Amino acid sequence: MGCGLSTPKTAQAQPARLQTGSLVAHGSLRVVKPLGEGSWSDVYLVERMKDGRSYALKRTLISELSEAERWIAVNELRLLASLNHPNVVNYKQGFVEDNCLFVIMEVVPNGDLSKVIEQHRRRETRISEDHIWSYLLQMALGLQHLHASGIVHRDIKPANILVGRDGVLKIADLGVAGLLHMGSSKLQIGTPQYMAPEMHAGHAYGYSADVWSLACLLYELCALEPLFQDCDEEVVARKVLATVLPPAIPAKYSPELQILLNRMMQHDSELRPSIDEVLASPQLMSRMQLLPAELEASLSVSLDCMEGLPVLPAIDIPADLHDLNTRLPPPRFSSDNLASEGALEMAARFGAPAVVVPLPAVAQQQPQPGQLQRQRQEHGGAAAQPAAPQQQQQQRQQQPFPEQAAGSDAPPYLPRVGSPVTVLEETLCTAASESTVATPSAGHGTGGSGSIIDACVAAALEDERSAAAERSAATAARKAAAAAVWSKAAAQRQQHLQQQKQLRLLEGAAI
């Protein structure tokens, strides 16, 4: 326990601990008490002065970190801000202050699964099977959301699964998580005791690596000890690579748990079930009623907000760390429903398709197909000179975003990185400028650069519409599948409640 290697921590200097009652974020947060600390970060319970609500504040001394460690810290913030699921810890805001990166998240008050396991080990008691099935269901649902967003966690373990109110679990610590490109990765990162065989062997891996890690966690919940125990990473790797089938779990538990565990721990990643197949297994489908009832409303909100929220692109870290404030995603405080928080506008600024979100005012001012050609003909071959790039940037900064106009917490001048709208805008302006210089007189523009621009506009918009249609179809399929799972869970829960009611009535009649 605690011997797992993850990522190197080179930070030497430690910032002074925040004192109870002190204010941070320009006086908008009051520190209530410390919650924990690590090698290069600490976590505090804070109260937000604006609404009086409690949040968790993670502080990382980013100025003392290596370039790779800075990327890990910012990557976790970026991925958290991209996700919206009741079984994934919820992002609220990120900012840089006093050479530290702060991330505000929801409070998850009851520790993590490693503490649950340790408590049962000390008391020499087993975790009830119903609780284990409930934990497995929730972790699988959270992973399903990550995988549907193209994210592989890479470090699923008890310490990274937080326990909230009423037994609701939250997947946390996405620092080493990443997007899968072309379906696999070879980056070796994570905690050795929970890493899949293909990761230890240095082979390409995919989402099924998370399924193996989840199986290791499932075994630990049953046995109250890790499946692969050793502080030597090479010894752990040899044990993992030599595993054919996991050992038997305690006889207290049903054979169904062992059957599912065996399936999830297939040594060959191609034979391992996907997280969707795990959730669709008879063992889990028959126990959906064990999910906390509090998840029903949250999951409904999550399904409604899946569409139009792509994972935010990578954030470049500037030399002056305080400039990072202008590149971080905007705050998300008003409610748990992203649709009412300006999140669609956020997605638009960070790369969402224009067909999902209305074009910003700057983009709406772009020349329409054929407009440049008509201007040349009407003005003797000279189209209106476009604004210089610096002037365009000033105009863009002077144009307030919807959240700023409403007086919300959104930081000013968020970047517009790589969205189809931005690329199209810059291409049009460049082409228009070149065509103005190259067209000496009227009558020479017909069928020339104006037609090329029109064709480029049409082709770009058509490509964007096709890509948006594919994304919409994929999202609809995921939502339908998730809705079917939840519908069955609700029906099973209702049936379970009816059975309990009838049982109580029979017990009362017997008395």
Architecture overview:
By secondary structure, this protein is α+β, with helices and mostly antiparallel strands. The protein has 3 domains: 24-107, 2-Layer Sandwich (Phosphorylase Kinase, domain 1), CATH 3.30.200; 113-279, Transferase(Phosphotransferase) domain 1 (Transferase(Phosphotransferase), domain 1), CATH 1.10.510.10; 359-404 and 413-511, no CATH class. Helix content is 43%, strand content 10%. The protein has helices at residues 67-82, 113-123, 129-148, 197-200, 208-223, 233-242, 255-264, 275-279, 282-285, 295-304, 343-349, 361-364, 371-378, 389-398, 402-405, 420-438, 449-510; strands at 23-24, 29-37, 41-48, 54-60, 91-97, 100-105, 151-152, 161-163, 169-171, 178-179. A 6-stranded antiparallel β-sheet has the order 1-2-3-4-6-5, covered by helices on one side. Strands 7-10 form a two-stranded antiparallel sheet. The two termini are 50 Å apart.
